[in-house]
Amino acid sequence: MIVFRDVSLVYPNGVHALSDVSLSITRGDFMFLVGSTGQGKTSLLKCINREVRPTEGEITVEGQSLAELRAGDIPFLRRKVGVVFQDFKLLHQKTVWENVAYALQVTGAGSRDVLRRVPRTLELVGIAHKSKMFPQELSGGEQQRAAIARALVNHPLILLCDEPTGNLDPETSSEIMALLARINAKGTTMLVATHNQAVVDRMRKRVVRLVNGRITRDEERGRYHVGLG
Description:
Elements (H helix, E strand, L loop, with lengths): L1 E9 L5 E10 L4 E5 L6 H8 L7 E6 L2 E2 L8 H7 E4 L11 H10 L5 H15 L14 H13 L5 E5 L7 H16 L3 E5 L3 H7 L2 E6 L2 E6 L10
Parallel strand pairs: 3-8, 3-9, 6-7, 7-8
Antiparallel strand pairs: 1-2, 1-4, 4-5, 9-10
C-alpha cells in the first residue's frame, strides 16, 4: 500500500532527515516508528502526506507515485491520509463538533453528509457527549480523541500519528492507543511515531527504528529496544 524505494531527504538547510530508506507497508498494517528526537520519524510521515518531497528515491501510495502528483491532486491524496498530531492542532474558536465538521467541509462535503458522519465519528472515539464543548474545556485525552475524530471523519485509508501520547499521562495514553488499535482493526492502516516505550512493548506490533534517518531495525511484534525477550 505504501512503498519507499531508496528514499533520501535533505532539507534546504542541509539537514539529512532520511537516508536510503526502503520500506513496504501493507494495507491494514499497524507500525510503530521509534527513535530519539531528530532521527527522521516525522519527516518520514510528512513524505507520505506529500508535505515534503524526497531528494532522491520514490514513494508510492496505492500504486500512485507521489512524485507524479500534480498540485491539484494533493488534496485527494490527503483525503486518504489522516494525520494526528502531538499538540492536537484543534481550532480553539470552534466546538468539538465544528472542528470535526470543518475537516469534511473543506473537502466539499454537503450538509447532509456532515450531519450523518460527524456524530458517528464522535461516537466511535467516545466523545459524542462533548460535542458542544470547546477544546480548552476538554482534558488532554479528550482533545486527542477530538483530533483523532477530525482525522477519521473523511474515512482515510491511512492514519499517521505523530507522538499521539506525547502530552498525556500513562492511563490516558493507554486509552488512546486502545482506540487506535480498534480503528486499525476496522481496516485503517496505522503508522505511529512515538517515544512511548511502555506502549510499544505492551502492544507488540511491527516496530521500525530510525537512527540518523536510516532504518536500523524492522521487526514484527517488536519491542522498543531489542534484547528484552
